[in-house]
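Try it yourself: sequence plus S-adenosylmethionine, in.
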Amino acid sequence: MTDTAGKYDRFSGFYDSFEALIERRAFSKYRKRALSLAKGKVLEIGVGTGKNLPYYPEDVEVTGIDFSRGMLEKAERRRELGLKNVKLMLMDAQNLEFGDNTFDTVVSTFVFCTVPDPVKGLEEAYRVLKPGGRAIFLEHMKSKSKLLNVPLYLMDPVMRALTGTSMVRETQKNIEKAGFKIERVENLFFDIVRLIIATKPSGD
Ligand SMILES: C[S@@+](CC[C@H](N)C(=O)[O-])C[C@H]1O[C@@H](n2cnc3c(N)ncnc32)[C@H](O)[C@@H]1O
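Structure, out:
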């Protein structure tokens, strides 16, 4: 088990209550918008406690992976509440156990701030996405504004210690480094929380 997975195992009992306020005020709206774009066979990377599961369209087939057993157990409870078309698996995003070109949609929400080697994880996401498929990233990251980055740098050591999360990752650049073609970026909270829609070009 990696250090980060262990941190999430320990945090899994508090995770939903820790985020309850921000979830109600903001994240739930962002999730609704992001997940409405999912189609077909979906891979959700870092499914966590399964907060996205209620927001998927009814006709999709979701495989959710996470490397924290504790987080997955919480997600399993949510799944049992009636979401039939969801499969949950213990797996590392940096080493996905799926063949190339398997999924129509890849989803991650607030995950690539934490994946220990984010570009490797994103390259794996790219590999398993079908050519012409869509990736939906709802992620927080470093801002372009030096001023907005001040609180992020202050929070960074605390979040790293607590959950292994970096507040100042350059996730949009990492998405491009992994080969994705960015179609559209929506800044949801300044440019710190962004919805990034990207594709794997057909023929790749
Ligand atoms: C901040 S939580 C977000 C959970 C969920 N996506 C959400 O929106 O509530 C980050 C999740 O990513 C998972 N994660 C981080 N790195 C991972 C990796 N390399 N492989 C699989 N899961 C990973 C963590 O275990 C954790 O559940």
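One thing you can check immediately is this: The chain has one domain: 3-199.
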